[in-house]
Design a protein that fits this description.
The complex is a heterodimer. By secondary structure, chain A is an all-alpha fold. Helices cover 71% and strands 0% of the residues of chain A. The chains are: A mainly alpha, B mainly alpha.
């Protein structure tokens, strides 16, 4: 497959180089809100939404920064943009769908410190994606994040019923599970070769 | 500025040691896991990442502590982020100047120090309430604890994944490297194993305290 084609960029971000399981981005929500499938799904959708918005904004910001040759301000601008994007998304959701807003609760503002979002903005800049490639990349990353979160939540719901030695309950077990999931996702590398 | 809720803490050895063990940011609080897992596939990367984080942590804690009476409460998080981002930009350019290889190995993860929750957590929970001395000592302790955690993972992963430490061959050439250890899943497995070990030790200690004989604690 052509590494610059939109479908490859999408699949690459969603499966081959999954943000959570291969690049270790966004681990805090991955371990924090993956206890129940319902919250995992809401978190995934919210993150996907913020990813799309901040990816588009980051593309615009970078264009301006390059134009005025002030790229050293990139990091500060990106983080400010992400924080405002989250705020914007929060207000929009609150206005349009109060039900969804209540369901997401505290997770919405916390997305600001999710490194998957900033990582996404930085990666798309380093790889010099054009506008549509950025869109494909960010939607792929969002889908991949949601898939990983849902899989983990499903596993943990099953695990809650299993009998475990008392030492291995808690974070250690979640990490081992994540390792197994990550191992499984490495199988996707065959899809198009690792294109990091 | 509103009243400061926590009372000022005296600078003791404990201020420093807490970050190393009792409140270790990685092993106890599980904060800042993204860089911990992503860049620890070799010892060198782990050291560089640890030192970079240590610098940002100490510098931003200093500045936040100095400005703690001037930052309005409503915009404090945004202010902290801007302060942290400034220092991260400095580190980013410094590493790029010192070693381009290292810069390429660490990639975007240097810039991602901005969203490391350890740093923002320290700024919010400690530096914004304490005097300069206590903040700096605490930040150094936390940063050192973070670096040690990175080293714990980095050495194990490099040793098992490549048979070397810092590029020096440790195992004989007959050793078949466990390649999975330097690949992403290895990061999860090694961190999980460390946590298991610490949980086991903690449980054994508690059991020893509980049982009067204290001899036959086996941690199950």
């Amino acid at each position: 497959m052509d590494p610059d084609s939109l479908i490859f960029i999408f699949l690459n971000a969603a499966l081959i180089n999954n943000f959570v399981l291969a690049l270790f981005l966004g681990l805090c929500p991955f371990l924090g809100v993956s206890a129940k499938k319902e919250t995992a799904w809401n978190m995934g959708i919210a993150t996907m939404f913020v990813m799309l918005v901040s990816s588009i904004s980051a593309y615009g910001i970078n264009w301006v920064l390059v134009k005025f040759e002030i790229e050293f301000l990139r990091l500060i601008c990106y983080i400010a943009v992400i924080a405002s994007a989250v705020q914007l998304v929060e207000m929009t959701v609150k206005k349009l769908s109060p039900g969804l807003f209540r369901a997401l609760g505290i997770f919405l503002p916390l997305i600001t410190t999710n490194c998957a979002i900033l990582g996404l903005a930085l990666f798309q800049t380093f790889r010099e994606y054009d506008f549509f490639q950025s869109l494909a990349f960010s939607s792929g990353a969002g889908v991949g994040f949601t898939i990983a979160l849902m899989l983990m939540a499903g596993l943990r719901e099953k695990l809650a019923l299993a009998e475990l030695p008392s030492v291995s309950q808690g974070a250690a077990m979640s990490l081992m599970l994540a390792g197994l999931l990550s191992l499984a996702f490495m199988g996707f590398a065959g899809l198009g070769g690792s294109h990091a | 500025m509103s009243v400061l809720p926590n009372k000022q803490e005296k600078v003791t050895l404990d201020t420093f040691m807490r970050g190393l063990w009792e409140e270790n940011p990685v092993f106890v609080m599980l904060l800042g896991l993204c860089p911990v897992l992503a860049v620890t596939n070799s010892t060198m990367n782990a050291i560089a990442m640890g030192l970079a984080t240590l610098f940002v942590l100490v510098a931003s804690s200093t500045l936040v502590s100095l400005l703690r009476k001037m930052i309005p409460k409503q915009v404090r998080i945004a202010t902290y982020i801007i302060i942290i981002a400034t220092f991260v930009t400095i580190v980013d350019y410094v590493i790029q100047a010192i070693s381009l290889d290292l810069y390429n190995a660490l990639g975007a993860f240097i810039q991602l120090i901005v969203v490391n929750c350890v740093i923002l957590g320290r700024a919010e929970a400690y530096a914004s309430k304490q005097k300069l001395g206590a903040s700096v000592v605490n930040a150094i302790g936390m940063g050192t604890g973070f670096t040690i955690a990175l080293l714990c993972l980095g050495t194990v992963r490099e040793l098992l994944g490549a048979g070397t430490i810092l590029g020096v061959q440790i195992f004989s050439s007959n050793f078949e490297p466990w390649v999975v250890m330097i690949l992403p899943p290895g990061g999860f497995f090694v961190l999980g194993a460390w946590l298991l070990l610490f949980d086991y030790l903690k449980q054994r200690k508690e059991q020893k305290l509980l049982s009067a004989e204290g001899a036959v604690a086996n941690g199950s």
